[in-house]
Amino acid sequence: MQELIELMRRLRDPEHGCPWDRRQSFETIAPYTIEEAYEVADAITRKDLAGLKDELGDLLFQVVFHARLAEEQGHFQFDDVARAIVEKMVRRHPHVFEETDQSLDDDALRASWEAIKAAERRGADPVGTQRGVLEGVARGLPALVRAQKLQRRAAAVGFDWPVIGAVWDKLEEERAELEAEVEHFTQGDEAGREAARARLSDELGDLLFTCVNLARHAEVDADRALREANRRFEARFIEMERLSRTSGQTLEALSEADWDALWESAKQQISSGPPVKRQ
Q: In whole angstroms, what is the distance from residue 121 CA to residue 101 CA?
């Protein structure tokens, strides 16, 4: 770890460091940090443990890079980052580090975790201010991830559907509203399509947000579920390409019936995999 920290210091050295590394800032490095986190997730999905080791190193390098930038500006250094996360994890696991009941089930553990986080948010308030329930949910998160976090925050104070069936009813309502806007969009003239497209976008967003709510009630991670759907589609489409080449056909020349037949064959070859439960 010290070698890595020293390497970062050398790269950022004003006189002898790397010109590219010296030009970077928090803002320019942030996209790389996000990219590396997704590459870690991708290696896990592919069960590539050798690749995971490399990707975790790349992600750790991003942490060290940000810490170095902060140290140069006099804010904090890497040791402060490590110390802060240790203190936070100890604080959020009283059932491990304190003399408390260690036989809590998953629901009780989740409730305890959220209660401690809420207390931390209240404790971070400047004197005389009141933080909102949804404050602190990063706007830069992927949309599905942010939707899940917003919904969990709201549910923690009681703003939630009581049962999953109610969410399903809402999903049907949103689907009907979207269907109506699609009809307006397809039947309208060119002048009216622009306004219809905006309304269609709103209704589609509402439908997606409700889908995330449904996933949350079913304890399924919506973001991972969509990534798995992407993986299945990609694998099945590649299999369709292989099958078409084997039969001497080009994809462009396929009829609708041919596409359907190839898709069903590809689905039989590519498994769906286990459900992705929300952590």
A: 24
Q: Please answer whether residues 124 and 88 qualify as being in contact, where contact means their C-beta atoms are separated by less than 8 angstroms.
A: no
Closest of 204, 95, 216, 233 to residue 167, by C-alpha: 216
Domain parsing of the chain, residue ranges: 2-91, 94-123, 143-218, 223-269
Amino acid letter, residue 63 = V
The total number of residues written for the chain in this structure: 279
- Correct CATH for 2-91 of 3.40.50.2000, 3.40.50.300, 1.10.287.1080, 3.90.280.10: 1.10.287.1080
Per-residue pLDDT of the chain (279 residues; tens, 9 = 90+): 999 999 999 999 999 999 999 999 999 999 999 999 989 988 998 899 999 999 999 999 999 999 999 999 999 999 999 999 999 999 988 888 887 766 778 778 878 877 887 777 777 655 555 678 888 888 888 899 999 999 998 998 899 999 999 999 999 999 999 999 898 888 877 777 878 888 999 999 999 999 999 999 999 999 989 988 998 999 999 999 999 998 888 888 889 999 999 999 999 888 665 444 544
**What is the DSSP secondary structure assignment for residue 144, as one 8-state letter?**
H
Query: Tokens for 194?
Result: 């622009």
Domains 2-91 and 143-218 share a fold: yes
